[in-house]
TrEMBL record:
Stated name of the protein: 6-phosphogluconolactonase/glucosamine-6-phosphate isomerase/deaminase
GO terms for MF: glucosamine-6-phosphate deaminase activity; identical protein binding; isomerase activity
Record InterPro entries: Glc/Gal-6P_isomerase (IPR006148), Glucosamine6P_isomerase (IPR004547), NagB/RpiA_transferase-like (IPR037171)
Domain Glucosamine/galactosamine-6-phosphate isomerase: 9-226
Keywords for the protein's UniProt record, in alphabetical order: Isomerase
Protein source organism: Sphaerochaeta pleomorpha (strain ATCC BAA-1885 / DSM 22778 / Grapes)
Length: 247
């Protein structure tokens, strides 16, 4: 298992530690290549990491940002929109070289084609990849497709994933959660030069336990990251809770 695990006492410390690791990798990429490319996760688990990241001393005008996923048919004005999330919490606070968003409105196929073209112009230096309560990465719910060569595709969201969105307060009821989303695919995520994963909170404890104790398998999609050569995992006492019981 190729993973460097950092356990923090609380989400704020976790977020600071993860942001420092991301900043180091971005600075190294800029030093080596003149620019850096990053993929960002969204959701409640990323609040502290993104908040700390925008305060880091990074030449943001040399950084290009992509993100992982977006609901199909959801307006950007909806509070659950990941485009809205990133523009408000990240893009508006710094001066990026460029920001490329997943757009689930309009002609989805054309949107995916255009985004894929931008994404594949050069490698991604840092993928900031969260883990869902059902073990998903991006919206690759179990059983995840580990084999597709597509960069992004439309997927159907499972009930556990939808329940997480309701539990985090993005939607009032299960029926309000869109049934489909555009997600970055697993192979594309694994193509990142480095992966940094920030996973706080007790609700993620089972997913963290399964990710670290099970063999790589599509029923726990996050297990695939154990095969990445440069994976850093940041968890807190709450999300590490089930692991502590092993010792």
């Amino acid at each position: 298992m190729n993973v460097n695990i950092n356990i923090a006492p609380d989400p704020k410390t976790l977020g600071h530690n993860a942001a420092e690791a991301i900043a180091i990798l971005l600075r190294e990429a800029i030093k080596d290549h003149g620019t850096a490319r990053i993929i960002l996760s969204t959701g409640a688990s990323q609040f502290e990491t993104i908040s700390a990241l925008v305060e880091m001393d990074i030449p943001w005008d040399k950084v290009e940002m992509f993100h992982l996923d977006e609901y199909v048919g959801l307006s950007e004005s909806h509070k659950a929109s990941f485009r809205k999330y990133l523009k408000e919490r990240f893009v508006s606070k710094i001066s990026l070289k460029a920001a490329h968003f997943v757009n689930g409105e309009g002609d989805v196929s054309k949107n995916i084609e255009a985004l894929t073209k931008e994404l594949r112009k050069s490698p991604i230096d840092v993928g900031v990849i969260g883990i869902g309560e059902n073990g998903h990465i991006a919206f690759n719910d179990p059983p995840a497709d580990f084999d597709t060569e597509q960069a992004y595709k439309v997927v159907n969201l499972d009930e556990r994933c939808k329940l997480q969105q309701v539990g985090e307060g993005w939607f009032p009821t299960l029926s309000d959660v869109p049934s489909q989303a555009i997600t970055m695919c697993v192979k594309q995520i694994m193509a990142c030069r480095h992966i940094v994963t920030a996973v706080p909170h007790q609700v993620k404890a089972k997913a963290i336990f399964d990710t670290l104790t099970q063999s790589v398998n599509p029923n726990v999609p996050a297990t695939i990251m154990k095969g990445h050569p440069c994976w850093q995992l940041f968890i807190d006492d709450a999300s590490a809770g089930m692991l502590f019981k092993l010792y």
